[in-house]
């Protein structure tokens, strides 16, 4: 966690739990609360001064809502209670929540470990990787012989 720039230690714990609610671990796939994903999100937020207050306020709202709704910290809630609470936060703070989802998905699905686990790799843009024949420049001879049809500056 040495790379964390924006989040405090308690915020790292909170966002880890939140991210694991958004994308939970499954079989050999880590949840979005994996430390490398949290680092990616923190790094992205640190590069955009406008995002920092939105995320910090949003995380605070999660804790405040948890205390108001369940008289307990978010980390002590059951998974079902966490998801229910996050659904409420999503309705009450849609801007924060949409940014949270966006940055979570971007960080998760661009993470090299996740890409490898999903079986994606560097492939050609065509689905099967069709080889294109060499370009035949002679095909342009007719066009080259035509007069200009535009005005010169």
Task: Please describe what this structure looks like.
The protein is mainly alpha-helical and 153 residues long. Helices cover 58% and strands 0% of the residues. It has 7 helices and no strands. The longest helix has 20 residues, at 51-70. The chain is elongated, with a radius of gyration of 24 Å. The mean pLDDT is 90.
User: Which class best fits the helix and strand makeup?
Assistant: mainly alpha
Helix content: 55-70%
Pick out the low-confidence regions. none
- Total helical segments: 7
Euclidean distance between termini CA atoms: 58 Å
Q: What's the overall geometry? A: elongated
Mean pLDDT, nearest integer? 90
For the secondary structure, the number of strands is 0
Q: What string, H for helix and E for strand, traces the elements in order?
A: HHHHHHH
Radius of gyration: 24 Å
Largest sheet: none
Strand content: under 5%
């Amino acid at each position: 966690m040495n790379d964390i720039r924006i989040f405090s230690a308690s915020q790292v714990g909170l966002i880890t739990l939140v991210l694991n609610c958004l994308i939970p671990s499954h079989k050999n796939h880590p949840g979005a609360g994996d430390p490398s994903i949290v680092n990616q999100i923190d790094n992205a937020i640190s590069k955009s001064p406008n995002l920092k207050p939105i995320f910090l306020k949003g995380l605070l709202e999660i804790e405040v809502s948890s205390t108001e709704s369940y008289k307990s910290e978010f980390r002590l809630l059951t998974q079902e209670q966490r998801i229910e609470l996050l659904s409420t936060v999503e309705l009450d703070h849609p801007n924060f929540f949409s940014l949270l989802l966006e940055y979570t998905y971007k960080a998760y699905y661009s993470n090299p470990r996740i890409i490898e686990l999903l079986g994606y790799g560097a492939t050609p843009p065509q689905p099967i990787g069709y080889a294109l024949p060499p370009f035949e420049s002679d095909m342009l001879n007719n066009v080259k012989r035509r007069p200009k049809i535009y005005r010169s500056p």
